[in-house]
Amino acid sequence: MSTSINCKNVLIFMGPPGSGKGSISQKLKDKFGWEQLSTGNLCRQNIAEQTEIGKIMDFAIKSGKLISDELITSMVIDWFSSSAMNNETVILDGFPRTLCQAQQFDEFLSKSNINLKIVNFLIADDEVVKRVSSRLVCQNKICQKVYSEIAIDLKPQVSGKCDKCNDSLIRRADDNPVCIKDRLLVFHKHSNELIKFYKKLGRLFIEVSCQAEPDNVFDNFIKLLELPAV
Ligand code: AMP
Fold first, then answer.
1. Is the pTM of this model over 0.90?
2. Which of 66, 88, 125, 219 sits in a 20 to 30 Å window from 4, CA-based?
């Protein structure tokens, strides 16, 4: 792991599916021009393009299971070394998700001067089930913008169409009631270990309640991270 890293700040977004990590990332990208790496989006892109790793990931993703630590960590490290990554602040949405990934990534970061912050998105499980059951995503794997059938802030302007690229909106294969419960179990199994790991290292750890509508959560997020309210 000798790759160098070109950005100054890395924000790790931790939280269960549907907690709003993707929506808040999108707002931060729009407002501050930050870069976002969603490992879930990257996996789905690989599956759509039928790359070699995409073929390995397909079954795990559809059944709500995690991809192997080695595969995910090497994908993230490759992404950081790509020439496209030249931004001051990078949001990691959905990585690390296990203690092993966190340890490997921390070792990678230890060779740089990165300012690392961990943001933990807090939300009740029943709210997750409600949100994920009503989630729609743009089927264009380059876009994958997230919408909701119920949250007013997240409804598409034209029903069934993406506001950004006009492609069709679909439901993710793993956003079904059985998978959502499995994904929540997987999340809870790993999250305590991750929290302990980062707290023990003394990393800056911020908790954001995500029960409210995305716009309110975003305003609160801006205050907690002491960002300019431009
Ligand atoms: P997400 O879009 O973040 O809900 O992720 C969707 C799926 O991608 C997960 O259920 C996993 O199968 C896979 N995935 C994304 N990030 C990771 C990760 N850090 N470790 C293992 N699997 C991941």
1. yes
2. 66
User: Ligand 1: residues within 6 Å at CB?
Assistant: 17, 39-40, 43, 60-61, 64-67, 72, 94-97, 101, 174, 183
Interval between CA 119 and ligand 1 midpoint (Å): 17
Tokens 């309210």, residue located? 229
CA distance linking residue 117 with residue 11, whole number of Å? 5
Contact 154, 146 (CB under 8 A): yes
Which own/partner contact pairs does 201-209 have at CB distance under 8 Å and 24+ positions apart? 201/106, 203/116, 203/117, 203/118, 204/116, 204/117, 204/118, 205/117, 205/118, 205/120, 206/117, 206/118, 206/119, 206/120, 207/119, 207/120, 207/122, 208/119, 208/120, 208/121, 208/122, 209/122, 209/123
Closest to 96 measured CA to CA, from 195, 230, 213: 195
C-alpha 223/C-alpha 137 separation (Å) is: 28
Give pLDDT tens digits for 198-222. 999 998 889 999 998 888 899 999 9
